[in-house]
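In the previous chapter we treated chains in isolation. Here, by contrast, the input contains two separate entities that must be folded as one system, with a combined length of 756 residues.
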Amino acid sequence: MSNMVNVFFYGKKYEVPGDLTIMTAMEYAGYTLKRGCGCRHGFCGACATIYRIKGDNTLKTCLACQKQVEDGMYVASIPFFPTDKRTYSINDIKPTQQIMMELYPEIYSCIGCNACTNACTQDLNVMQYIAYAQRGELEKCAEESFDCVACGCCSVRCPAEISHPMVGLLARRLVGKYIAPETAHLVARVEEIRKGAYDDMIEKIMQKPITEMKELYNTREIEK
Amino acid sequence: MFTAEMYESIKKVEATREERMKTEPRRMTAEEKDELLKTYHPDYRAAGFDEIKVGPNKGEKAPKELAELLHSNSILLTEKVDLSKIDYDCDVLVIGAGGAGCSAAIEANEAGADVVIVTKLRIGDANTMMAEGGIQAADKENDSPVQHYLDAFGGGHFAARPELLRRLVMEAPDAIKWLNDLGVMFDKDEDGRMVTTHGGGTSRKRMHACKDYSGAEIMRNLRDEVLNRKIPVVEFTSAVELIKDDKGQVAGAVLLNMETGDYLVAKAKTVVIATGGAGRLHYQNFPTSNHYGATADGLVLGYRIGAPLLYQDTIQYHPTGVAYPSQIFGALVTEKVRSLGAMLVNKDGEAYAHPLETRDVSASAIIRECANGKGVDTPLGSGVWLDTPMIEILGGEGTIEKRIPAMFRMYLNYGIDMRKEPILVYPTLHYQNGGLEIGGEGFTKAVPNLLVAGEAVGGIHGRNRLMGNSLLDIIVFGRNAGKAAAAKCKDVVIGEMNIDHVEAYAKELEAAGLNTGKTSPLLLPKYARHER
C-alpha cells in the first residue's frame, strides 16, 4: 500500500493515498464530481486546477486527471472559466493577419510576461503562438498550439486578458481550411462516388453470401 | 520509473529487438482467430452476462451491468414532472454533445431546423475528444469503398448491417472533405496528399490522422462550429426520460439539471439520441478508456420507450490500454503506436502475434499471454510490452514526438520516455459495438421520429469495430441524422404529451419479478468512496 499524504481541497484537509491523481484523490475523499471532470485522460481540459504546495509561494496549474497528489498540496479546481470566444462564419473569413486584428485585437496588448506559457498544462509555448498570431503567421501559430486542450489556465493568468485557446483554434481552422494544400485524391474520390462510380460494385458485394465474403476476406491482399 | 522486475524483462525485449525487426510476425488463420476469441475474449465469459427479462430484446443476453440498468425503473416513476410546462420547444432535440450530436446539430441547423442540444457535461466531453489514432476513408488510388466494406465486414465477423455499412464506407470520403472544409488539420504532405497508415485489420493504408489528437481536433472544430452557429447548448443537463405523445411518436424529453436538481421539459418534433458509449459501466471490472459520462444512458432511454437493441452483447476491449503506471491505468494507447511499427512483445521478449490483427483478436492474445504467465506483473494486474523504441528506429529520431505527441507527453509525465523504453499495456474497455437498432436513414424502427447516431447505434460495425471507423461513423451517421431529423420535423404535429411508458415498463419489471432497487439511466459512475 502506498504512503498516505495530506492534501487540502478548497482548504479542507484530507488524508489520501499518495499514488492517486488529484481527481481520484478527490473521489477518495468523497467528492462526487460534476464539474471539473471530463475525459479523465488529459484530452478535454475540463479539470483545470490550481494548487500551491505549503511552504512554496509558486502558484501552479495542472489537469487534475494527470497530476499526482503531493503532501501539503492546496488544491482548487476551476469549474468554469469565461473564455471570450468570438463568433464568425468560417466560410466568410479569410486567412489574413487582419482577421486576428478583427476578432482578437487584445492579442496586441500582450506585455510579454510569459505567464501563459508558465501556466500551460500541456507545456506549450503559448506566448510564442500568440506572437505568431500577432504577426499573421497562422501556420506557425496552428502548429505551436496544436496540442492545446483549452483548459484555460493560460487565460486565467493573462494580464492582457487574452483568450489564448480561442486564438489558437481560429488559426488552426484557417490553416486546415484555407492554407493547407488541397487534397486532390480526396476531391476526386468524392466526385467519383457522387457520380455513382461505385454503386454497382457496392450493391454486388452487399448481396454476396457470407461464405463467399469469408473467402474474399480471408484471401484479400494486404498493402505492405 | 519501472520496477526492478520490469527492467529485467525490458532487457529481454531489447535483446530480441534487432532479430524481431527482420521479420513481420505471421498473421493468424481464420481458425486460429476463432479459437483464440472463444478461449480468451471477454465476450465469451458467460459470467459477465445476464439475460434481458423485459422489453423488445427479452431473452437475449447483455453485460450484467447494462442488464441491471435495463431492469431498473425510471426516476420519474416517483418524481412527478408537469409536462405542460415547456422549457424548450424545438424542431430537433439532440441528446449528447459529442461528435455525433454536434454533427447532427450542425446539419439540422444548416437545413433550417430549430435545434437544441442538451448534454450532461460540457459540449465536447465525449469519447470523440479522446479518439487518438485516426479516421478511415477509402480516398486513395489503390483503395475503394468496396475494399473498405470488405475490411469492415470481415473485421466485424460478417455481422454488420449491409445497409448501414454501405453508408459508412460510401460517405466516408465526403465526411473527410466536410471536416477538412470546416478546418480540421489533417496530416498531409506538401502536395496535399493525406498521410495515411494501416489500422488493425485494414487491407489498405486509409487511416487519416491529426497527429494523435485526431478526435480532439475533430471535436474542437465541431464545437466551434456549433457555437459559431449559435445553436443553443444546454450543458450539465441530462435527459432522464423520453416523452411520447398520444399518437405514439417521440415528442421530447424530460431533462434534469445536474447541478440544481430541477426537472425541465423539452418538447421536440424529432429527437436524436447521441449519447455515446458505456465504458464507465466497467463491464467485467475492466478499466476504461472512455470519458466520465459514458454510462449507456441513451440505450436505457431508447429501450424503455420501446426501441430494440442490436448486438448489445458485444463489447470492444482495446488491446492497448495503459497497464502501468497506475495513475493512468486503462487510458488509451492509440493503435497508431502499432501502425507506426511497435510490436507487441511478452515478458520473455517474444513477438507472440502480428501487431495489427483486429482489436478483438489482439486483445485476446494479450489476455492469453498474461493468463499463461507470459505477462509482466504490475501493481494492478499484468501486461505485455509495446516496443515503442522500434518506432524511432523505423521512422527516424523524432517520429514519436511528431506523430504521437499525446502518448509521449502522457508517459513522460510519469518519468517514462517511450522513445527509449517500451511501455506496458493491457486491454481496456473501449467501445460498445452494439446499441439501438436503426434503419439507413437513422430512425429507430419502433418509435416514430426517434433517431440515433454515433456509438449509441448498433449494427454499423457488426460484432467488432475496426480502428478509425468510429470517428467516421459519428460524422457520417451524425450528419445523416441531422439532415433526416430536419426534413422529418416539417410534417410532424405533436399531440398530447405523456410518459405513460414509464409505468407500463414498471409493470413489466414487476411481472418479471425484478427489483434492482435502483433507477436508470445512471448518468454518472459512482466513484466517490462512500458510493462505491
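The beta strands of chain A are 4-9, 12-17, 48-53, 60-63, 73-77. The CA atoms of residues 191 and 197 of chain A lie 9 Å apart. Compare these points with the single-chain example from earlier in the chapter.
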